[in-house]
Amino acid sequence: QVQLEESGGGSVQAGGSLRVSCTASGYFRRTYWAWFRQAPGKEREGVAYVTTPYGSTFYADSVKGRFTISQDNAKNILYLQMNSLKPEDTATYYCAASQSAVHGFEAWRYGNWGQGIQVTVAS
Questions:
Q1: Nearest to 36 by CA among 99, 123, 102, 115
Q2: Contacts of 13 (CB under 8 A, 6+ apart)
Q3: Contacts for 41 with CB less than 8 Å, ≥ 6 apart
Q4: What pLDDT is stored for residue 56 in this prediction?
Q5: Cβ distance 2 to 26 under 8 Å?
Q6: Distance of alpha carbon 90 from alpha carbon 51, whole angstroms
Q7: Are 5 and 23 in contact (CB under 8 A)?
Q8: Which among 60, 15, 65 is positioned nearest to 35, based on CA atoms?
Q9: pLDDT digits (tens, 9 = 90+) for 59-91
Q10: What angle do CA 102, 43, 119 make, to 5 degrees?
Q11: What is the bridge-based pairing of β-strands 3-7 and 18-25?
């Protein structure tokens, strides 16, 4: 049974930086994994994903140039470095893993999800 656990969230002023991490435990196979977020009253949206093992990345337009997704394959850890944070980045951030051969942000492609971690950006 795979478990994904996020860490590193918190509160920051606009313009600041945070890094969130997601650690996978248990037998873990994936073709790619991703960060999603959900703000109050809004639908969950994909933020970024990275493929395994080659590390190809894809970002939502809203975070391109500010966020960086990366992975440590040996330790099964996924990172999201968030710079130049904006109040609209405030959300619960989730990591998710997929074994699908086709990459994308459709939630149904992801079989494993973390519990989520709060990121709050104050203006």
A1: 115
A2: 121, 122
A3: none
A4: 94
A5: yes
A6: 25
A7: yes
A8: 60
A9: 999 999 999 999 998 899 999 999 999 999 999
A10: 95
A11: antiparallel
pLDDT tens for 18-71 read 999 999 988 778 889 999 999 999 999 999 999 988 899 999 999 999 999 999
User: What SS3 state is found at 99?
Assistant: coil
Q: Residue 17 carries which DSSP code? A: -
SS3 3: strand
Q: What 3-state DSSP class applies to 5? A: strand
Cα separation of the two ends of the chain: 40
- Give the pLDDT of residue 28: 76
Q: What does the block give as tokens for 117? A: 């971690």
Q: Tell how strand 18-25 and strand 77-82 pair up.
A: antiparallel
- Distance, CA of 1 to CA of 56 (rounded, Å): 26
